[in-house]
Amino acid sequence: MSSIALVTGGNRGIGLAIAQSLQRAGHDVVITYRTGSAPAGYKSVQMDVTSTESVDAGFASIEQQWGIPEIVVANAGITKDGLVMRMSDEDFESVIDANLTGAFRVARRATKGLLKLKRGRLIFVGSVVGALGSAGQVNYSSSKSGLVGMARSFARELGSRGVTANVIAPGFVETDMTANLDEKRRSEIAGSVPLGRFCTAEEIADVVTFIASPQASYISGALIPVDGGLGMGH
Fold first, then answer.
1. From CA 85, how far away is CA 46, in angstroms rounded?
2. What H or E segment, with its residue span, contains residue 211?
3. Does pLDDT of 150 surpass 80?
4. Which of 39, 40, 225 is nearest to 129 (CA)?
5. Residues designated as active site
6. pLDDT digits (tens, 9 = 90+) for 97-127
7. What average pLDDT score do residues 180-194 get?
């Protein structure tokens, strides 16, 4: 019987690539989306990770219809970039709430089911800027950095129940967001990466799928960079 894999924010970009990769690996994939509509071919529920009620209702719906998610990928997130002198409390707090507290709400609710199963994978999608920092992204890099401490605490707390917790840290990825950068900025960024190019969403997704697999059963509390060498392991 294939295990149920839940991907938050799985309706586009990296989240959709993760959903596709997990589905190809034989998992029964459920995606969550906050706005818009879910892509065809996937089980889906609407979920806003900034609301505990919405997260609880989403999980209840998934468990009732399809069963307990054994693989949980906390991918949903937002950016509100801006220089620190101009960054409002709201710009800072909303990004922390979606990216860090949102991942906590999802993982906390998922834990109920994982303890029943006595096995599972919590996979948090972080970022290379969580360790390196990024000008104009104080809020975003803080939120992604926080995921590392969170995942490692989950790893310690749930390890005896057969649950692993890890962070995947992408570098610069080809997405709608990076597609809008001008050519000069794109080549500057690519030039700072030892491999000399952006990452594809599929390259991130394949690593998530590996961490979800039986082959990665003894990896927990790890920060796994997929950044072309940009962060050199940080």
1. 35
2. helix 201-212
3. yes
4. 225
5. 140
6. 999 999 999 999 999 999 999 999 999 999 9
7. 85
CB-CB contact of 194 with 172 (8 Å):
no
39: closest CA among 61, 13, 58? Answer: 13
Beta bridge partners of 33: 46
pLDDT in tens, 34-78: 988 888 899 999 999 999 999 999 999 999 999 999 999 999 999
Query: CB within 8 A of 212, min separation 6: which ones?
Result: 5, 22, 25, 27, 71, 73, 121, 123
Number of alpha carbons in the 13 Å side-chain half-sphere of residue 32 = 30
Model confidence at 1: pLDDT above 70: no
| pLDDT of 9 | 93
Domain 4-174+202-224 architecture: 3-Layer(aba) Sandwich (3.40)
E strands, 127-222, where? 163-170
Number of helices (H) and strands (E), helices first, in the chain? 9, 7
Enclosing H/E stretch for 29: strand 28-33
Residues comprising the chain, all counted: 234
Three-state DSSP string of 45-102: EECCCCCHHHHHHHHHHHHHHCCCCCEEEECCCCCCCCCHHHCCHHHHHHHHHHHHHH
Q: Is a pLDDT exceeding 70 seen at residue 201?
A: yes
pTM of this structure: 0.95
Domain boundaries along the sequence of the chain: 4-174+202-224
Buried b (16+ CB within 10 A) or exposed e, 156-195: eebeeeebbbbbbbbbbbbbeeeeeeeeeebeebeeebee
**For residue 216, what is the DSSP state?**
G
